[in-house]
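Whiteboard transcription, Tuesday session. T.W. wrote the C-alpha cells on the left side:
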C-alpha cells in the first residue's frame, strides 16, 4: 500500500517568508549551515510521518471542508527569537513563549487525529520555523532582528516527498479561514 509522509503546518505569506529569509541570512553569519528555501518556510503543527494514501485523501478532504471542528481558530504568533536544536543542528525562529491559542490549535488537532488512530507526540510542542540546517555553531546569535507579527487564519496539509538530493513539500489541502 502506498503511503504519504504528511504534516500540518502554518504557511507564511510571501512577505513574511521574505522577512524570515532575512533572519536566516543574518543567523548564517554566526551559525553557518544551509538556509531553507524561502518558499518552503513553515511552522509545523503536527508531524504525522507516513500515512496510507486512503487516509491521506480523507484528511485532505476533511481539511478542505473546514468545518469549525477541522478548521483553525485564527490567532497570532510573534516570531521574536532565534533558537537552536543542537542535536538536529537546526537554527530556528519562534516565539519566546507558546501562545495559548496556538497550543490549543495543536492540542485540538492531535485530539482529532487520534480519532484516526494517529498517535500524538510525547514531546511538548515547540513551535518554530526552521531557518538553517547543518549549522556548524550551536549557539544562536545574541540578537534577533525586530520581531515579526504572524497572524494566521488557516493551516495546510503538506506531503513531504523524497527526491534525490533532498525533499520537496507539496501542499495537498488547506483549511478555509473560519467565517471566510
Ligand atoms: P523541523 O523543521 O524541526 O525538522 C517536515 O519534516 C516538517 O515536520 C518539519 O517542519 C519538521 O520539523 C517537522 N517534524 C516534526 N517532527 C518530525 C520528525 N519526527 N521527523 C521529521 N520531521 C519532523
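and on the right, the sequence the group agreed on:
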Amino acid at each position: 500500500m502506498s503511503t504519504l509522509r504528511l504534516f500540518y503546518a502554518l504557511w507564511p505569506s510571501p512577505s513574511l517568508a521574505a522577512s524570515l529569509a532575512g533572519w536566516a541570512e543574518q543567523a548564517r553569519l554566526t551559525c553557518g549551515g544551509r538556509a531553507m528555501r524561502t518558499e518552503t518556510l513553515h511552522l509545523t503543527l503536527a508531524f504525522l510521518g507516513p500515512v496510507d494514501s486512503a487516509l491521506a485523501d480523507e484528511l485532505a478532504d476533511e481539511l478542505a471542508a473546514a468545518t469549525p471542528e477541522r478548521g483553525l481558530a485564527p490567532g497570532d504568533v510573534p516570531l521574536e527569537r532565534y533558537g537552536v536544536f543542537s542535536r538536529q543542528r537546526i537554527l530556528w525562529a519562534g516565539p519566546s513563549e507558546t501562545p495559548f491559542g496556538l497550543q490549543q490549535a495543536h492540542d485540538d488537532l492531535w485530539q482529532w487525529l487520534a480519532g484516526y488512530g494517529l498517535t500524538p507526540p510525547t514531546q511538548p510542542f515547540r513551535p518554530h520555523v526552521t531557518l538553517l540546517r547543518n549549522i556548524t555553531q550551536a549557539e544562536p546569535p545574541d540578537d534577533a532582528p525586530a520581531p515579526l507579527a504572524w497572524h494566521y487564519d488557516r493551516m495546510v496539509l503538506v506531503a513531504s516527498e523524497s527526491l534525490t538530493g533532498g525533499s520537496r513539500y507539496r501542499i495537498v489541502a488547506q483549511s478555509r479561514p473560519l467565517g471566510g
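Someone added at the bottom: Helices lie at 14-31, 53-65, 100-114.
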